[in-house]
Structure formats: structure tokens, C-alpha cells
Amino acid sequence: MRIHVLGAGAGGGFPQWNCHCRYCAGVRAGAIAARPRTQSSITVSADGERWVLINASPDIRAQIEAFPPLRPGRAVRDTGIAAVLLVDSQIDHATGLLTLREGPRLALYTTAPVQQDLSTGFPVIPMLSHYCGVDWHPIVADGSVFGVSEAPGLSFQAYALSSKAPPYSPHRHDPHPGDNIGLLITDTATGGRLFYAPGLGAFEPHLHAPMAQADVLMVDGTAWRDEDLIDQGAGSKRALEMGHLPQSGPGGMIERLAAFPRARKILIHINNTNPILDDHSRERAILDAAGITVAEDGLDLVL
Ligand code: MLT
Ligand code: MN
Ligand code: ZN
Q1: How far does the centroid of ligand 3 lie from the alpha carbon of residue 272, in Å?
Q2: How many domains does the chain have?
Q3: pLDDT at 113
């Protein structure tokens, strides 16, 4: 399986358009050792031809241009994106669907709660019926195996996460299983396995088995501390309140990931207020010592 990180940033990207925090200002000025990141999205393929786009970010147009396998090449109108799978209905994961309107009928895999949000509060699916049209394929977040027929050679299992539906969703303060999912993706030929959960808000017992099977754990890197936004004077929201488990502290991501010694560990969906964006930060050194990588746009893996 080929895995390509299209965007390693959280909502807003890095730098964020209206942010003058230490890190956004620092990367703009070239004053810190950091690289810009577009918004959260990866793509996976077994054959290198037919790709499943996992999350469709507002930056999708530039992300496609930056990754040749997704560009058109075989016909006047063409794409390497065979299907789209969404892990939630957040704006940074769903807005890119609108950009895909010029393409062929869209094969879209989501849970039922995500399909509902994208048909009501943010009605992208009914809107697209007037453009490319959408074939919706329901995902059940109970760990059962499913395939994406448009991109053979991969099997998928989805697990409900304790995270957060978007602010516009009626589920924001009334969580339902399937508002957010983590995915175990297996290459059926090589046996290589990726666990992908950019919105991992809590380590729950039912996640242990799928995470223990994975060769790579690519998980939520939004915040270093619960108070990152407050620390940077960038807002009042806490990471946990937004459904994101911070890296530091007791019960944090670093401590939790230590339970999976075999896997390569990668953080993704890094918010622009997170000090780990600075390659020379004390926080980055702590991650290095724990064997945890911080994803960058363009990161490629083969499993
Ligand atoms: C999140 O991951 O919490 C959201 O993407 C935040 C946002 O929409 O800006
Ligand atoms: Mn997000
Ligand atoms: Zn910032």
C-alpha cells in the first residue's frame, strides 16, 4: 500500500490566514525552523493508480497538483481519485468535495451521521447532485471489514471515536457513534496495516486491538497542551473540548502511544498553535526521544 500525506495541518492550515501567533508569524518570516502545512488529508492506494482520498480539504486543488498520481493523465478529463472516504463532517475534511464537482460521479464513503450532516447543516451532498452527483456508500463503525470497490486491494475497518462533531452539527453536544471514526486499512496482498485517526480524542478499550495490529499509527497531532490556543492568545477553546487529545501530560498521546512499541508513530492534523511545528523546539525534542514523527505535507510511506 502506498500512503501519501497531502496535508498534515489541522483546520486553518499553517500558517492560518488570520493568525499572527508565534508559529504562524515565525514560518511566514522564516524566523523559525518550520515548514507550512496544508489542511488534513491523506490518500492511499494498493496499485499506485486508483487512489482513495481520505478527507477532502479546502486545500485539495493545490494538494492534487503537488502529487502527480492524482493529476489527470489518461484522458482530457481525468483524475487519480477513485473514491473519497471521510472520517467526519468537519469543514477541514469535507469542503474539498465542492472542488471535485467538475469530475465524474463521486463515490463517497462515510458513516450515516456524517452523511446526515453533509445533507443538512452543510448540504454538500444535495448540492453536488446538481454537478457530478454522489454515490453514497455507508460505513458502519463497528470494526467490520469493507472494501472500496473503486480501489481494489485494500480492506478497511472503521471504529467509532470519542471526539467531536463539527460546531454546525446537531451532534456537537449530543455525540452519536460514527460522528468521528478511526480507520484500520490493510493491504490485502502485503498485509501492511495503517491505523489512521486524525481526530483521536480518547484512547478507548475497543481501539486497542486495531491499533496493536498496525505497522503505522497516524494519529491526532492537533495540540501539545489542552491550552495551546489559550497559551498563544489565539482563542479560548481547549483541545479536549474540540475532541482532540493533547500530546503532553498524564494520559496524553505520548504516554498512550508507548503502549504500541512495534508501530511507527506519526502525528498528523497539527494545529498552527502547536510548538511541535518548530523543528528546534523543546517539545519536538521530547517527541524525537519518544520515537514519534511529526507529519509534513508530501510524506510517503509504503506498507
Ligand atoms: C477540528 O478538527 O476540530 C476542526 O477541524 C476545527 C475547525 O473546523 O476549524
Ligand atoms: Mn480538523
Ligand atoms: Zn497561528
Answers
A1: 4
A2: 1
A3: 98
